[in-house]
Design goal:
By secondary structure, the chain is mainly alpha-helical. Helices cover about 70% and strands about 0% of the residues.
Length: about 100
């Protein structure tokens, strides 16, 4: 189910090979690009998991805030996009847990 959620929406923009390192250093232009490239897909992921547009918007913002705060922990293994989606899923899971719900049902 998660893979189908991740593949929904527009095709992923090609990411420069140094994006992960620039992200880890909190380079503002790298983050601006990441937000521009991934915002709509992350919103759609959160919307599908929560079925709540307002919560999805808040969770999308929370994802970027959480990712920024933990950027130094990005290991460079895997794509920055995959890492960001891991952050997004953790943010959604936390929200669902606080709501007493589970993803997918």
């Amino acid at each position: 189910m998660i893979l189908s959620l991740l593949s929904a929406g527009a095709p992923a923009a090609e990411q420069p090979p140094d994006l992960g390192e620039r992200m880890r250093r909190r380079d503002r232009s790298a983050w601006d690009r990441l937000v521009a490239d991934e915002h709509a897909r992350l919103f759609n992921l959160h919307l599908r998991l929560t079925d709540d547009r307002e919560a999805a918007a808040d969770l999308t913002q929370d994802t970027f805030v959480e990712a920024w705060g933990s950027a130094g922990g990005y290991s460079g293994e895997g794509s920055p996009r995959a890492w960001l989606y891991g952050v997004a899923l953790n943010v959604s899971r936390g929200w669902l847990r606080r709501q007493g719900r589970r993803a997918g049902g």
